[in-house]
Target: Gfo/Idh/MocA family oxidoreductase
Amino acid sequence: MSAPLGVGVVGLGAMGASHVDTLVTQVPGTAVTAVHDADAGRGAEAAARLSAREATDPLDLVADPGVDAVVVCSPDPTHLEIVLACVRAGKPVLCEKPLGVTAEESAQVVEAESAAGRRLVTVGFMRRFDPAYLDLREAVAAGAVGRPVLVHNVHRNAAPHPAATDESVVVNSMVHELDVLPWLLGGAVTGVHVRAPQGEGLRDPQLAVVELDGGRVLASVEVYLAARYGYDIRCEVVGTDGTVALRPPGTLVHAVAGSQGTPVPADFRIRFAEAYRRELLAWAGAAREGGATGATAWDGHVANLVSAAGVQSLHSGQSVAVPAASVPELYR
Ligand SMILES: NC(=O)c1ccc[n+]([C@@H]2O[C@H](COP(=O)([O-])OP(=O)(O)OC[C@H]3O[C@@H](n4cnc5c(N)ncnc54)[C@H](O)[C@@H]3O)[C@@H](O)[C@H]2O)c1
Model:
């Protein structure tokens, strides 16, 4: 039997702890060999529980000879430095979305990976592994609704992350839909207009109209981080012959206290548990061969280009065009 893939995990908060748990319980042939969190208590606790080394910082973790591949789950502004270190070290890396906080940052990753001449970076756009989204994509590709003309997306969280800002509503949250739309339909996002209702404090909710292929398809995206009632992800594709939509998750219908309905997941870890499992399985398989799978650094960069236009639109109140970008050799 070959040795397990040694995985180093940076950031052990909600996403990192979830990925560690999934790796340990559901991804055979992997071992979490090193961890690091800026909160030393969190790092030490995980290291002891997993019999892993607690690295002194993210770069120490990347350099650890016991680490074959890295999962990055620290806050968005930390992603760039760690991913670049992984590319330099020739180690496959699953970087949680977004791939850096600006398109300038993600461009640096694309450049570094292109210079290395091989794909090492996977971006954690896990919806690409979600069974319901995969069914939706297959139905659209099979022509089930004719030619798609509209897409309606809803992305609600119970509460914002404490670090949420007006801009991160787009860059950190809406980026999921900005990646999913071209993946779902083919083609490219060519324009975006983001608005938020007048109010105090965090500009939340936000509503975007996203244009694909010069306006052949239009999509609405609602992101509402403080929706309170739970984590609710919806997507409906409207075509010339009908519509197709994600079914609400869950298998039960509760009839209690005068109302009837399906439970809403509390957060992303519940709604996308299967997507994370499939994502990590695929990633570990590719990493064992020294490569990558799923969303590429280029996909992460393209999503960041759209996010940047979205942030510009939020501030200006105007619709903003997204410049066409030519795909580098490595990603063709
Ligand atoms: N794919 C998804 O569905 C999804 C869902 C949630 C979060 N995420 C992404 O995962 C990342 C983490 O989000 P989260 O919700 O787990 O946040 P979190 O706040 O729960 O956890 C972040 C962790 O990183 C640690 N940290 C802070 N600075 C650090 C540093 N410089 N080096 C190492 N560790 C550091 C914190 O102490 C904390 O434990 C973000 O990039 C976020 O966008 C992805």
Residues 297-316 form the longest helix (20 residues).
